[in-house]
Write a structure and sequence with these properties.
It is built from eight helices and twelve strands. The protein is elongated, with a radius of gyration of 32 Å. The strands form three sheets. An eight-stranded antiparallel beta sheet has the order 5-10-12-11-7-8-6-9. Strands 1-2 form a two-stranded antiparallel sheet. It has a two-stranded antiparallel ribbon with strand order 3-4. The chain starts with 13 loop residues before the first strand and ends with a strand. The chain is α+β, with helices and mostly antiparallel strands and 279 residues long.
Length: 279
């Protein structure tokens, strides 16, 4: 809905707070307008104007001979107010009942609407941050694909066990899928444990039996590992590991989930994998 009509009159109609006049200068306080004119002027569908009438917001006159609606200058000001308050987030019932509110009640109503908008703003900010994280995951995927086996530190301190029936950990995963991590060791590669990344401070609240891995060194090589969503869930981790072990002794292997996507008609889970370098 366009809001410009609230502040900038159309070329054929000029309305102000004190007086309404046609461009010719003729007094139009008694001028009446058809629903099509009103719809065009405010960029509001005629069906919406009829709905507002049904809800008791508008009270246009109707011609006796054909029952066509006729809107007065007062109706134009009412419609302007309705659009203004709807743009603030008020419901039609609230707008209709505003005439019976005291100034204090006006203030309370607007304070409630402001609080609602602030909550919506927090929600939108949170959603935007999650979208940025997903976009960042795509960028990381491309960087690892184009430039693998770069030496770096690891971006987690601790990984604890994760069972899908553990609601709190599942909620953490829903908030940030990158927390989902796989723990393996070069000497026992088929043995795999899956968990959730937590900070060193949070790790203190978990029993030792639930801790799958803690950071002890900070020298790792990173690469993109992909696992096909198919029978047996084949992945390319052994190939990457064999390449690294040509020149390095390796220890722990941590794979952090990036995203699930298609490549060449097949669906894969993509991980940022860290291989610990021992020498």
């Amino acid at each position: 809905m366009s809001s410009c009509a609230l502040y900038k009159p159309s070329s054929y109609l000029n309305v102000n707070k004190k007086r309404a006049t046609i461009a010719t200068g003729k007094d139009v306080m008694d001028h009446l307008f058809q629903i099509g004119e009103i719809s065009q002027f405010f960029d509001v569908p005629a069906s919406t104007l009829r709905y507002w009438e049904d809800k008791g917001i508008l009270h246009p006159e109707k011609q006796s001979e054909n029952h066509y609606r006729e809107y007065s200058i007062e109706d134009l000001m009412t419609i302007s107010d309705v659009i203004y308050y709807k743009n603030l987030g008020l419901q039609l019932k609230e707008i209709r009942d505003m005439g019976g509110l005291t100034p204090v009640q006006h203030g309370q109503l607007f304070a409630e609407k402001l609080s609602e908008l602030e909550q919506q703003q927090k929600l939108l900010t949170h959603r935007m941050e999650k979208l940025r994280r997903h976009i960042q995951a795509v960028k990381i995927l491309e960087e690892l694909k184009n430039d693998p086996y770069q030496e770096s530190g690891i971006d987690t301190d601790c990984i604890v066990s994760f069972d899908l029936i553990e609601r709190e950990k599942l909620c953490q995963y829903i908030e940030d899928p990158y927390l989902y991590s796989r723990v393996q060791h070069s000497q026992t590669l088929p043995k795999e444990q899956r968990g959730i990344t937590v900070s060193s401070d949070m790790a203190k609240s978990f029993p030792e039996t639930s801790i799958l891995w803690k950071k002890e060194t900070n020298r790792y090589l990173t690469f993109l590992m992909k696992e096909e969503i198919a029978a047996g869930f084949p992945n390319d981790l052994p190939c990457h590991l064999a390449h690294i072990q040509k020149t390095h002794r390796t220890g722990s292997i941590i794979s952090r989930f990036l995203l699930c996507a298609q490549e060449c008609g097949r669906t894969y889970d993509y991980y940022k994998t860290f291989v610990e370098i021992l020498s």
